[in-house]
Each structure stands twice: as structure tokens, then as C-alpha cells.
Amino acid sequence: MYLLLVNTKAGNNRYQYIERSLKAILDKAQVKYKIVLISDLAEIDRLLEENIKSNTKAIIAVGGNGTVTHVIDAMIDYDLPLGIIPTSKSNQLANSLGVKNWKAGVKLLIKPNIVSKKLGKIGQRYFVGPISIAPKKNIITDILNKQHWLRQFLGSNLNKNIQDSHNVACKINLDSNLEVQCQANNIELNMIEGVKKSLKIAIHALDKHKDSLSIFRANQISISSSLNLPILSGNEILASTPATIKSTNKSIEIIQP
Hints:
The chain is α+β, with helices and mostly antiparallel strands. The chain contains 9 helices and 16 strands. The chain has helices at residues 10-13, 15-28, 44-51, 65-74, 92-96, 102-110, 136-146, 148-154, 158-161, and strands at 2-7, 33-38, 58-63, 82-86, 114-122, 125-127, 131-133, 168-174, 178-184, 186-191, 199-207, 210-218, 220-225, 230-233, 236-240, 243-255. The radius of gyration is 19 Å and the shape is elongated. 36% of the residues are buried.
């Protein structure tokens, strides 16, 4: 049986519009499931404790990036796979894992493909998939450039009001033995499987309107910056600089294409 943790508020209350279709797809495929509604993300620990049974075969996060990241934190001590049913178009974490929309997430429960992913950690928060560090206006500009539907919805004049992306002075300590000082426009971090140094750090900087790229490998980085920069998993802010980010010896199984 799948345990579906549903954040009804995610995606502007989108669940109410897809609930009937979601249940119909699972019922037609004779998939057993239990739906538990989340009224507050702080309740997820309790909801898991109360609802995980011996026949629970996976935990499914139904909602946005915030729902998924909170579920990951709560299920870290449970030996169960994680599935994602995104209910908003801005669920970039689900997108990065290959789950493009809610129907794709539901269909994966019928014929699940399970992939083990190494977990990273920032403070007390765990993450899977890519994370990024960038000034907020750089993030907004990037979202507008990538998501044409959002630019159309907000209006074509909005882009003109956003300043160009810019660099921020950063200091990064890699594994306590190498210090990198840089001007960064955006920093991307990925967990790499099966290598000695499993944290890949890609530092992007604008140099005369051209993007320069530097890549490093480490198991832990400590980063500080001239501005407090948000650290994002998808579009969910997990922390902000200064921060320490590290790979862990923990993994999580993900239901994904």
C-alpha cells in the first residue's frame, strides 16, 4: 500500500481539481493506497508515525517543493522509497528527478522504477538532487527566462523592471584544506554517485556578460558571502549563507523514470 501525504494548499489548492482523476487512475490499476491530508508541514513527523504500517511500501509526497523536502527530512529513518506527485508547475525538484507533472507521478506508482540517490545535508535539512545558491534577483531572472508561461502571466514588461544578474563575493572552503575566493553569479551543487568526492560544485560568474565556469569536487563545503544568499532545492529555500553543506553516507530510494 502507498501512503500518500497530500498538501492540499500546494499549487494554489490544485489537489482539489485533480483528486478525482488521481483516484480514478489508481483505482483502475487496482493500486492500493491511503490518502492522508497535511494541514501543516510541521505535522509530517507525526503523520508518518501514525500511518506507516507493515504493508506500507512507499511514501508519496503530493504537493510542491516544500512538501517534498519536509517529507524527506521526516522519513530519513524509515527504510521506504519516496514517490512524488507534483501539484504545481513550479515543482522544480520533481522536474529535476524526471517527474514532469502529476499524471506522470501517479503512473509511476503503477509500474514503479526505484533509483537509489545519495543524500546531502545542510544543517539539519537533507536534500536530494541539485541545489543552487544565488542572489534572489538572479533566481527570479532565471525563472522568468526559463518559464515562458510565468512571464506571460505576469506581463511582458516585468522583465524590464528586473536588474541584470550580477556577481556576489563568496568564500568557499572545500574539505577544510582548500579555500576558493570568487565572484559568483550562481553556484550549483550536485551529489555524484560512486565517486570518492561526491559533492560537485559548479561556480558560474559573469565576466563581461559572458558566463565563466569553475568546477570543484569535495565531500563538504563551507560557504560565506558578502550577501546572505538563499540555498534552494527546487524553489524551496532550505537555508541561507553562511552554511556548511556536506555529502552523507545515507541514501534514499526514489520512484522516478
